[in-house]
């Protein structure tokens, strides 16, 4: 072995290469640990109407570890996306000691029945309700777990279908049996039932919209409830309507009806003439 010049040269070259690599690694480690690469600033861009500096510092910045070279960008993005109101965050390095973070906020559309909010894209998120309703009360959504996107899509349909009445939905509910109900502005509660076909809800809504002016002309703002599940019409309940109990309805149905004789009463027969004696 010691007489093999080629082998000795190869071993020597390998040792030199290892020494050089070790020196480079040590130098690189020393270099990236210099204070000049310590993160000094984080630039925040994007829609941040509901996010402020103290919130970011408390929920995201305090969790960041590393400097310009060693910080984990995926972990940094996850830290920012854990902040309330943040839907998506993108993170990039800015030479030599900064980060640039672009934030996309959730846009609130409604409240969900578990206390969370629903975004305009049908996504659930947790945030302060008072902040979400700073421009007005949000509609109320409710449905089985995992149905938030379906309820959101139907809400947009109901807004379009009831637009001719200038009555926006204030609440949309999908029951555990997948039956739909809507409360319109003004308090009118509508029962639309289950979707038998793709056109079921649209047909029932259009029927109500077409007939509502005549119904409103009779009852005005007193309409409280409408059941739209009938095949060719709907039933309405209004304040001030008098409802009979089942017993009262039966009595009314079985009461005898007095008939009037349309003919004149027959004339009494004339008394026989007396004979003259």
Helices and strands: which structural class? Answer: alpha/beta
- Proportion of β residues? 15-25%
What form results from the Cα inertia axes?
A: elongated
> Helicity level, as a percent range?
25-40%
Corresponding CATH architecture of the largest domain: 3-Layer(aba) Sandwich
Query: How do the SSEs run, as a string of H and E?
Result: HEHHEEEEEHEHEEEHEEH
Low-confidence stretches: 259-277
Instruction: Fill in the CATH topology of the largest domain.
Output: Rossmann fold
Mean of residue pLDDT? 82
What is the number of beta strands? 12
Put simply, the count of helices is: 7
How many domains comprise the coordinates?
2
* CATH H level, superfamily name of the largest domain: Cell division protein FtsQ/DivIB
CATH class of the largest domain: Alpha Beta
The major β-sheet equals: 6 strands, mixed
Major sheet: order of its strands? Answer: 7-8-9-10-11-12
Pfam families: FtsQ_DivIB_C, POTRA_1
Family: Belongs to the FtsQ/DivIB family. FtsQ subfamily.
Biased composition (Low complexity): 264-277
Organism: Pandoraea pnomenusa
Walkthrough of the structure:
It is elongated, with a radius of gyration of 40 Å. The protein has 7 helices and 12 strands. 33% of the residues lie in helices and 22% in strands. Residues 259-277 have low confidence and may be disordered. The protein has helices at residues 5-32, 53-59, 73-81, 129-132, 148-161, 200-219, 246-254; strands spanning 41-46, 86-94, 98-105, 108-111, 117-119, 124-125, 140-142, 169-174, 179-184, 189-194, 223-227, 235-238. The termini are far apart. The protein has 277 residues and is α/β, with parallel strands linked by helices. The protein folds into 2 domains: 36-105, Ubiquitin-like (UB roll) (Roll); 108-246, Rossmann fold, CATH 3.40.50.11690. The strands form 3 sheets. The chain has a 6-stranded mixed beta sheet, covered by helices on one side. The chain has a 3-stranded mixed beta sheet with strand order 1-3-2, covered by helices on one side. It comes from Pandoraea pnomenusa. It is a single-pass type II membrane protein. Residues 37-106 form the POTRA domain. It is found in: Cell inner membrane; Membrane. Its main location: membrane.
